[in-house]
Structure formats: C-alpha cells, structure tokens
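Forum: Protein Structure Q&A
Topic: Joint prediction for protein chains with partners

I've read a bunch of threads here and the consensus seems to be that you should model interacting components together rather than docking separate models afterwards. I'd like to see that in practice. Below is the full input, 1528 residues plus whatever partners are listed. Could one of the regulars post the assembled result?
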Amino acid sequence: MSPVSNPSLQHTTQQRRLSALYKHLHPNGAATAPDHNLTTKISPNATLKFGSITETQQQSFDVESMAEWLLGPNTNQKLRQKILAMSKADIIRTPMLNLPKEEQRRITTEQIKYILASGEYRISLMKQNPSEMMQRLECMTFFPASASVKLGVQLLLFSGSLMNLGTERHKDVLRRAEKGEIMGAFGMTELAHGSAVQKLETTATYDPDTKEFVINTPSKNALKWWLGNAACTATLCSVFARLIVKDQDYGIHVFLVPIRDEKTKQPLPDVIIGDCGDKQGLHGVDNGFLGFKNVRIPKDNLLNRFGDVTDDGEYTSQFSSNARRFGAHMGELITGRVSIVFSSLQVRRASVLIATRYAARRVQFGAPDRTGEQSILSYRSHQMKLMPILASCYVYEFSKRDLVRKYTSLHSPDTKISDDDLAELHALSAGMKAVFSWDTQKYLEICREACGGHGYSAYNRFGSMINDHTIFQTFEGDNTVLVQQLGGFLMKEFAKQFQKNQVGAVLNMIGSRIGSAIATINPAQVFTNPNVKSSNFQVQAFRHRTASILQTCAQQINNQRKKKGFVNAWNDALPQIVSLARAYVEQYALEQYVSQVRRVKNRELRTILKRLRNIWALTVIKDNFLDFVNIINVKPESIRKALESQCEKVSTHAVSLVDAFNIPDHVLDAPIGLSKGNYMDHILRYAIERNPGNHENIEGLLEGILESNDNLTTQATSRPSASAERSHQSSLSEQTLFHSSTEKAESNGDESDVESDSDDEMEQ
Amino acid sequence: MSPVSNPSLQHTTQQRRLSALYKHLHPNGAATAPDHNLTTKISPNATLKFGSITETQQQSFDVESMAEWLLGPNTNQKLRQKILAMSKADIIRTPMLNLPKEEQRRITTEQIKYILASGEYRISLMKQNPSEMMQRLECMTFFPASASVKLGVQLLLFSGSLMNLGTERHKDVLRRAEKGEIMGAFGMTELAHGSAVQKLETTATYDPDTKEFVINTPSKNALKWWLGNAACTATLCSVFARLIVKDQDYGIHVFLVPIRDEKTKQPLPDVIIGDCGDKQGLHGVDNGFLGFKNVRIPKDNLLNRFGDVTDDGEYTSQFSSNARRFGAHMGELITGRVSIVFSSLQVRRASVLIATRYAARRVQFGAPDRTGEQSILSYRSHQMKLMPILASCYVYEFSKRDLVRKYTSLHSPDTKISDDDLAELHALSAGMKAVFSWDTQKYLEICREACGGHGYSAYNRFGSMINDHTIFQTFEGDNTVLVQQLGGFLMKEFAKQFQKNQVGAVLNMIGSRIGSAIATINPAQVFTNPNVKSSNFQVQAFRHRTASILQTCAQQINNQRKKKGFVNAWNDALPQIVSLARAYVEQYALEQYVSQVRRVKNRELRTILKRLRNIWALTVIKDNFLDFVNIINVKPESIRKALESQCEKVSTHAVSLVDAFNIPDHVLDAPIGLSKGNYMDHILRYAIERNPGNHENIEGLLEGILESNDNLTTQATSRPSASAERSHQSSLSEQTLFHSSTEKAESNGDESDVESDSDDEMEQ
Ligand SMILES: Cc1cc2nc3c(=O)[nH]c(=O)nc-3n(C[C@H](O)[C@H](O)[C@H](O)COP(=O)(O)OP(=O)(O)OC[C@H]3O[C@@H](n4cnc5c(N)ncnc54)[C@H](O)[C@@H]3O)c2cc1C
Ligand SMILES: Cc1cc2nc3c(=O)[nH]c(=O)nc-3n(C[C@H](O)[C@H](O)[C@H](O)COP(=O)(O)OP(=O)(O)OC[C@H]3O[C@@H](n4cnc5c(N)ncnc54)[C@H](O)[C@@H]3O)c2cc1C
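Posted by a regular:
Agreed with the consensus. Here's the joint model:
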C-alpha cells in the first residue's frame, strides 16, 4: 500500500485490473458508472413505518408532473438538455479530489475553455434573450463549483464589465473574451477594502502629454486581492481605481489593464502578480493579487460609459455627483447576486436530495420484536432535520422565479423599467442573495450530519459543497452589508407610504400604527387561536412580522438620529435591520408560493405542496418566535405538534419529492445519493475506483463477500443468531427502563395520510 | 508562474531567495515566523467607538489574572509547558495544506511517533494520575487536528480497549502500543452499522480443536469501515465481533486481530485491507476498511475481562445478560466523549479568537464626516455574531471542568463511584459531547463569515477547523443518538424522584406539577417583569425550562406507550428529547458558571464575567424562545435590548477576553489572528511563504509598496483626495435617504462602561 502522490496518474494503468472487481459492484453488469439517466423514474420510496425500503416500491405521487411544475413553464428543454449533455464530458467529470491546487486549476481552466467553446456562455446573449441566458446561468450548477465560479468571473464580472461599463471601442475585446481567446480578471477588492468599495486606493492618473492613464498601487493595503483568474490565467484585468485628472479625484472608474503577455503568459513589466494561495474551497479557481507600479495604459482603456476624459484632460459624465456615478458602476453586480440566489438553491437541493435518499435507505436500530430495522428517515428527530430543508427547496422556487422575471424584464429591449422597480430589484436581489445563502450554508451542515459517518466521505460531496458554497455568503457582496440595502429600501418605501397616505410627511412623524398598504388587520383579532396550518394565518403572520420590525427600525433610527447622528443610529438598529431583511424575504417567498400553489390543478400534488408550506412556515415561526410572539396568540405546543405531524406526513413522500428535483446522477455523483442501486455497493465502488493505488490485490479476497446480501431485506434477516435480538436497542441503555418485557411495539398501522383541503380553507 | 505539484519540496530551494522579501514583512527584522510567545501580554485592545485600533493600546483589564482563572487552579503548569514545547517541533508544525492525503498521512504518522516517543501519552498514566492525564489530553489541541485524532485512535481507542477490556495476558501488547512500537486500529463500525453496535455482523467462532477463534466477515455490509490507522499504519486491530461458541451467539466481544505483517507492513493472508479514501477533513488520518475471510487467531486474543471461553468451549462471564455485558464493553467510550467536550471548546476558542482580533483590527466604512473608518467590531450586527460565541467560551469552561472532575474521580484508585454517579457521568458526557460539538460547529461558520473574504483563506484556518471539527458531531457516538442517553437518564431520575416523594410510584401517575427537587417556584409568580440580567432569573428560567420539557416528554411517552408501544412512543417524543438534553446541558453550564463567578474576588473581572453570562443566557433564551415563552413573562424587546447592550459593553473588552484564552501564536497559526503586528503584512507573508513557487520575481516590485502604510492610522488618512470623501458610505446607497447633508455623526463619547453589581443583586 504505497503512498500515491497523484492518484489520477495511476488511474489508467490500474483500470483494467479493477474491471473484474467492478462487475460485482454493478449487479446488472454495466461497468460504466455513474448512471446518466436524466429523470429518475424508478425511484425508491419509503413507507417508513418500521422496516427498510426496497428499490421496487412505487412513487408516492406523480413525480413527473411535480418535476415539470417545479421546472416551470418557460424552460427551454432543448437548451437544458444541451447543457446537461455538455456536463457529461470527460473533462467536466474529471475527479479532482486529492489533487494539488495547481493541478485542479489546470483542469478547471480546461473546463472553462471547453464550456466557452460551446458558444452558449456569451454575456451578449443576455441582451438577445435574457430569459434563456438566465436559464444557461442556472444550468451552470451542472458543472463543478470551481468551473462555475471561474466561468462567472470571466462571463459576468470581466465580460460583464466590458459590456456594461464599456462602449463601442471595447466591443472587440469583449468578443475575444466571449470566445475565451482572452481570459480576464475583475479587480475590485483590495487587501484592505472589500465591502467599502468607495475607499479603494488604487489610482489612475491621466497624463495629457501621452494620452495615457498611469495605474498605481500606492500602498500594500491597496494591492488588488482575491481576484479570480489573476494568479495564473488572466491577461487583462478590469481594474477599479480612482480617476485623477488634474489633481482632481473623480472617484471610482474601471480601467482595462493588461497584466500578462498574451503569448508568453509572463507578467508584464511593473505589474506585480501573486497567488493568494490555498483557500477553504474552490481549489480550481486561481485567486491572485495584483499591484501596479505606475503602469501606463492607453486612454481608450477607460471603460467610459458613465464617465470619460477628453484628450486634453476635461472630465465629462452624465452624472453630476460621484455618488450617483458610483451607483451606476456598481449596479451591474446584480447579475452575480441573482446567480447566487439560484445556485444556492440548487446546492441546497442536491444536498437534501442526497441526505433524503440516504435516510430512506439507511436502517439503524429497530423495534425490539421485529426482524427488520428502522429506516433513519422514520425517526422524528431526523424528519425534523430534513423535512424543513426539503420544504424550503419548494417554497423558495417561486420567489426566485419572480426575481428572475423582474431581472430579465430589466434586460429586455422592449421594457422600460422604472427607477422604483430598479431600486426594488437591487434591494431584493441583495436581500435574497443573503438569506438564501445563509440558510443553505446552515442546511448543508445539517444534511452532512444527518448522513453520519458516510456523510464525511468526500465522495458524498457535503465537504466540497460546504467549502465551495460558504463563500456565496461573502463574495458578490457580504451578506450583512447586503441586507442593509434591502433594509434601507424598505424604510424608504415605508416613508413614502406615509407621504402618500398623508399620515405624515416625514419619518419623525411616524405614529404607532403601520399604514394600510402594509398590513390591514388588527393582530389581536385575527391571531387568537388561529388554524396554524392555514395559508391565511401564515401570510398574515409573516406580513405583520415584517411590518412590526420595519416600524420598530424606522422609529428607532428616526428617534436616535437627532441625538447620535444617522450613522450611529443606523448602527444601533443593525440587528433589527438584519431581521427585517429576513422577514421580508421570507414573506415574499411565502406569498409567491401560496399564489403558485393555488393554481395547481392536481389535488394530490396540491395537498403535498400545502404540507410543505406548513412545514416551512411553521419552522420559520418556531425559529423566530421572538419576532412572532407579540403578533400571534398561539400555544407553543400547537406550533410544535403541527410541525412534527406535517413532517411525518411529508416524510412518506420525501423520496419522490427529491426525485422531482430532477438532478441527474452524474451531476450528483454521490454514492449514498444515487437514484438506483444499493448504496453500500456504491460506497465500496467509489472507495476502490477513486483510490486505485491503495487497493492492490484485494479483488480476489472481496469476491464472495461482494455477492452476499445484495439487498437490504436479506441483510436484515441474515444476522447470525436470534439470541442476540434480545439485547438490541439497548445501547440507548436508559430506554430499557421504560421497556416492560411483555410489551410489543405495535405498527402505527396505515394511519390516514389524507388531509382535506380544509386544513387550508382560508385560501383567499 | 509554473504550477508546482508539491510546494513543500520547493520550500528549501526558494527560502533564501525570499528572505530579502520577508524582512519587509517583519518590521522588527526578525525573519522567524510565527511569534512563539506563550502569553500574549501586549494585546491590542479596541476602544471601538469609531476609528481603528492601534497596537499600542492598553489591556482593558488584568488579562493575566483572567487567564489564570480560566486555566483553573489544578493545572500542572510544568506539564503544560512541556507539551507546548513539544508542539513547536518542526515535525508538528510542518505545513500540510495542498499536499495529497498520502503525504499528509505520512507526516501525521511521523508526528504520532514523535509524540508517543515523549512518553507523555500512555493510557496507563490514566490510572496513575487521572487528573494529569486529562490535562495531557486537553493539551492535544496544541497538535494538528489529524495528529490529535490519530493519536486518539492509538491511545484512547486501541490502547484503551487493551487496558479496559483486556487482562494480564494483554499487558505486553499494551506496553508496546504505548511506545508506538505497535500501531493499532479500533474495529467497531461496519459499513452497515455505526450507532447500532449490537447489530454488528462480524463473527468470531470458537474452534475447540485448535483453541482458536475464526474471525469472519459474512457479508459486504459487515466490512469494518472507517477505522482510523487501518488504511496504512496498523498491524493489529481490536475487532468487535459476535462471539459464537457451540452455535450459541453470546453477543459482541472484542478480539485482537493481526492485520499486517509487523516487518513488511503487508496485509496478512485472508485479511482484506482497503482505503476509505478522501474525506471532508482529517486528511492525515488513514481511515480504512477491513474484511476477514475466516482468519484464525489464538484464543488468548479475546479481550477477556468481561467474558471468556474455556479451552473446551464453555462460556463464562460475570454478567448474566448480554445487554449488561454489552454495556460494560461500550462504557469505555466515555473517555473519547469527554475528550471531545474539551477539544470542541478549544476549537471554539481558537476560532472566536481569530475572528475577534480580526474584527478589532479590520476597518470598513465609517462615519461620513470622519477621516478614519470604523472597526468592524463596532458594528452591532458584528457584536451580535461574535459576543455570544465569546461568552459561551467562558460559560462552558466550568461545566466542562466539573465533568472532568467527575470523570477523573471515576478513575482514581481511592474513590469508589456509585452506580448512580456512573450512570450520570455516562449520560452527562454523552449530552455534553453533543451540545458542545453542535454549537461549536455552528459558531465556526459564523466566525468564518465574520472575517469576510480573508476568512476564506485556508491560512486563516476556519476551513480546516470546520472540516476537521464537524466529525466530532458523529464519531464517538452520533449526537442525536447520544442525547437520547441523557434524555433517558433524566426521565429515569424523574421517575425516581416521584417514587421518593411518594407523589406516585409509577410514571403513568405523574400529575401536572414537577416535584420540588427539580423546581421550587411557581413560574407565574417569579417570572413576571423580572430583571433579565439577574443570575437568579436566569437560573430559575433555565431550571423551569428543563423541568417543563422533562415533564412533557415523560408524560407523552407514558401516555402513548400503551397505545403504540414504547419504541413508537419514544420515537414520537424524539424532537422533545433532543430539546431536553440541550436544556439540561445549558442549565448545568449556567449553574456551574454562576457558582464559580461568585467566588471571583476581583470586582472588575467579576463585572465582565457577569456580562458574559448575561450575553450567553439571553442568547439561549432568544434562540429557544418557544421553550421559554410559557415560563417567563418578559417582553421580547427587553430580551433583545439587554442582549444588544451587553454585547456592546463586552465588545470593548473582547480583545483582552480572547487574549486570556492564552492560545499561543504558533498554535493559532492564522495571519489575521496573530497576537502582534499588522494583519495585512501577515496575510501577504503567508501567501508568499506558503507558495514560494508561485511568487517568482516579485521581490523587487514589492519593495516600496511594502514600506508604505505600516500602521492603520497612516492608511486611514492617506487617501488620495478629499473630494472622494463626499460620496463614501453610499454603497449602502439607500442609507443616503436618511442622510441630511448638514448632519454630523457624533461620537458616542466615552459612555460609562461601569455597571454596578446590582445588575445581579439577586445572587443567592
Ligand atoms: C474566493 C473569492 C473570490 C473572490 N473573487 C473576487 C474577484 O474576482 N474580484 C474582486 O474584486 N473581488 C473578489 N473577491 C473579494 C470579495 O468580493 C470580498 O471578499 C467581499 O466583497 C467582502 O469583502 P471583504 O472580504 O473585504 O470583507 P469586509 O468588507 O472587510 O467585511 C468583513 C466583515 O465585516 C462586516 N462588515 C463590513 N462592513 C460592515 C457594515 N457596514 N455593517 C456591518 N458589518 C460590516 C462583514 O459583515 C464581514 O463579516 C473574492 C473573494 C473570495 C474569497
Ligand atoms: C473520520 C472517521 C473516523 C472514524 N473512526 C472510527 C474508528 O477508528 N473505529 C470505529 O469503529 N469507527 C470509526 N468511525 C465510525 C463512527 O464511529 C461512526 O460513523 C459513528 O458511530 C456513527 O455511525 P454511522 O456513521 O453508522 O451513522 P448512523 O448510525 O447510520 O446514523 C446516521 C444518521 O441516522 C441518525 N440515527 C441513527 N440512529 C438513530 C436513532 N436511534 N434515533 C435518531 N436518529 C438516529 C443519526 O442521527 C445520523 O444522523 C469513524 C468515522 C469517521 C467518519
């Protein structure tokens, strides 16, 4: 068992040797793994009342209809299939674990070239057909995370800066970047400044004599830091720098700065290029740092859409203030935020899918008088971990879809979007990016843990999802900074509301009530002993929560700004502003979901979808009870009981519900989460397949053992001796206290799982 | 910038070249990094009212006294210093990032040999001086995580099984294992079974003809899986298998099975050895799988303390039932759980230390009329992230210490521990292991995010802490399974209580009140408009919470077991049992802390310690408000307000509070968290030092830039032009709505930070 420094090298030489072994792990004889079926029609489904599932059970509802509904009516199936097909290419599926970052970066760069060569990922398509372009971006989750992020830098950040901040004269560079002929970096962040972009220190000083800009890094704090593509691949960088003309500082503008020789790939003179080094994840992305020692670039390299300099050094701009011009420059970051919204949701789905399929298949412990063991998904504690995550994957689909709709209408040539709508889009994308990514990160950890030891295997992907996803909370805008944009927007709307309603013209005249446009009903009357499973109750409770936090925030800031100044007053309110943004994003999600579910004709599906809503809404109420306690008059027990029983009901559909996510096995690539087969075979196969050098000479030995218990039912009854049964379950040893020796665990029976629509009779 | 497949190899050749560069990054000229001071006496400390901290400010309180208190009176300083010194050895500090797992495993194995050679880590020392042995285990956090876990396998699991389950005849193997002459694995888990150990399928069948046991893996589900040391290093394994004698199954026993030739290190005949492969973290630990094809071992290899077989095949044991004997075998897992309790707390401290020092140093945005920017620790939202974590690091110290005390008294030769105490110790260690590790994992993610982009750098260690720590939730017993042990124990105690008090003899007679031993006060009377900052209120609220959940659980299970059977009733109560365990662990922590803080003479320290308690207790109440809402009659606003203001107050002491953790820089090894120096220098230095091959030819270019702004004050005033100031802060663009152009942000002034003891006048 010699250490292997680079396992991928040994792969080919050992493949033949292992093929004999693999056939044991593929009962149907197929040695090509994994299964590439796009839809998982034969899905395991659990009855989950004690006993293990088998692979032959039926779907618990019409999965295909559900999948279709979840995908949405506007999906271009041909486009989706095309990208899925691309995602099966060998270069995309190259295993990357255990390779040094330099090797992972090399593979990722090849992946990007392959993807760009398809022509599907050109930013200019955003203008031609924004809706389809958004679908392409959504499909980027079929690619490995590093490739997807590196592509994002090239496509949305670098090419995006050319398209959105450049003019005619930058079109040629854009075209070359779209083909991947030029790789670019996006140079905003500096060592000392990330969120506070206006404090950047890099300068671009105009020299009228040579008609050049002189780009300079005045201090080490001003080194550009973290730039994707900068460490190895980029030849050009969009550099954010203060424009200085005739000693006057015009604030942040963006300049195209060549950093490497296009042919030799060597750093250009006076350009410092360094490697930021190892990261928590995204090992395939080459994040680097840059410094400029009075590097001269032609005047035309200013991306001059929002501000320009004449040859003899006059500054011109359609914006009168630095602040507004700055806003225009930053506005384009929104695409990245919307992308994170759906990427984050997709990661969440993959993770709960793996955990749910595993939970349905894995058995552990069981009722003492039975031969079988109990699927871990049948444990109430397990249901309470996974079902709220699963529910959120359904509920969040529709606010996401609405956000994408808003975003695409901004880009369609025939729509004229109002300033108000634009402001809302900014605020909403910022807030949703934050809440989606916060929650997904939390959920990833729960799903990992729910899979026990096998969840810790790198092959089951929780590790890489956790490490790659976490940065979604930080880049494209730090979450805590972003939610303040949504908070500010809402307070502005709140102020307007009062102006319109003549209740008061200025903030400091806010009374104790909230205007009718925000909430109409007196909480005390509506929320006493409500039906916690009704959508009406839930929507009203969520609205009142938003309204009450909004009112508190606005009032507090308004009262304190006179005493402390605005910045201090704002700072004092920050914890509440964070809550406000969450409340709003959750309310928006709930309302979008309710209105979409109402349109579902299929009664069976609608019932399940309502239960998912109950689970999600009640979880939000439970987790934020401090927000709700003054609004609703409900016993804690009734929240808990309703939540637990809804989780139990939905758990019997859980496998079909994750099947409807329609994530193909080759994308999933996790042995415990594949759509078919015995998960233990898959685990063993991955361990052997991915570490060929470490499994010499075990083929012969494994034979025989491999042929044993090919399904779980056999396993459950093949224990050596019945006498052992007596003592089992007692590793929860204290439980035995409650056992009476004559007691028999009884089946729950097939309790009615049908729930009338009247659970939700109050649908408006 | 050529890709480097193994950066460690290039290290030596490039070191000279880079030394010129390093001196810029070490202003004092010392090229040896990092700083190895054991105590960080000169600690940066923030005033934190707008403006950046400098390195010269004073400690906010007597850090040395605090550190001493936190370390505890029984610490053997000489021992601690000795292990600290060991932890500075080159082999221990070898950088491991970006190395393939095979290389990391090799280094980790060398580290273990080095540590074992010291003679400090011999399990038999546990019998000689249990308290000191526990200190040694606690000091294992000075070593890298992989080394610490691999050492744990050798020391606690493998050698521990020999010591605790073996007899005289196994002493020799134990001695050799303690010296590291033999490396061993601990073979409990199988592919199909982790938590449910009693369902293991591996068999050990006695053959009276040869006086041997035949070890067999009957199926692939029964492959031993995940065993530390098995993939590469172990020559022996303690195998958990069902003992079969004369066709009778006597349940789980443990057998010493040779798996590799001691000389050649090749697998022995009929032993399957495989590599479990890549994991989320702990890359230095070689987890492997094992299978046995009728492998014969001598009869003496049975670890026969609790059960034995005579030569001619009669089974003997001091236990009459399989279940009790099983309990005895499993009991020894407790040491590992106690270890996780303090390791987890130590990881939590390291993580909040890094985040807190960074938060005090990092500035971002600022009041519009100021030249300086604002330390991010001055943001209320940031305080609300970090201060509760910091507080928990203080509060949890004392329940941990009490647990260790209970544990060591179990091992001291002169104490005879009662069965009741033993049961409590089991339950408590299980519950604390779960709650400590759950919370630390959540906190790690918060700390990472609080450090923004720089938190994502692998050098800042959040990544490895997250990936290495997460498995603490799973191994040595899955958390959700473990909390059921504590839950079961409490319910048993509850039942006893009622028997003693004659309130009722059986569970189904429980009334609606809780016995006086558990809670004495009528909630309605005590908790109306209480002082939420008093320890009395907090302790009572926590007690009532535990009591009410306990009562609900017991009642529910008791009612339902008749209808559904015990297993189903237990399952239905699981979510509440999880809450019960948390409530109890938190109550225990609070009570231990209160009683310790009461003894602190130094008034200044006591005031701060009480604020930490307030922060922690109020956070628990806020996060679990559903548990508390029926108990306490407090306005949500008063919880929130008190919590926020306590966080703000403590934030001014935060840096000194983390300094008192006394974690030396060489252990911390995180550029943004080191005790001294400019964090940006450290970041740059690490990037260059750890990637020598990727930073060719930049020395000359970096000169000049490196000499700029060596402290943050310079940086804050060196911005190119004042005109830019006008627009800053507006990337939170909606905020400008509230700005009036004439408004000035005023200093908070130096508000009284002194708080009278009367905050807590109700100390009993
Ligand atoms: C893998 C990776 C790739 C990246 N790629 C690029 C790239 O290609 N190009 C590029 O330009 N940049 C890139 N970045 C940088 C990224 O955009 C920044 O890290 C991000 O904007 C956050 O900034 P920061 O790291 O400076 O955090 P900071 O702004 O310093 O924030 C640190 C902490 O302070 C808190 N904080 C800051 N301000 C406030 C406030 N006003 N109120 C409350 N809390 C506050 C934050 O919540 C955060 O927790 C990348 C970063 C990473 C890690
Ligand atoms: C890095 C690593 C090192 C290890 N080292 C060793 C070693 O050296 N030797 C060794 O023997 N083992 C080792 N293990 C195995 C480890 O001890 C097991 O993974 C652990 O005991 C959990 O068992 P499991 O993985 O089978 O999870 P399972 O028991 O299958 O649990 C899976 C999920 O089901 C849930 N669940 C299970 N039962 C219940 C229940 N009754 N009620 C509610 N929920 C339930 C759990 O909460 C969990 O979320 C190691 C594992 C890892 C990952």
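The longest strand of chain A covers residues 248-258.
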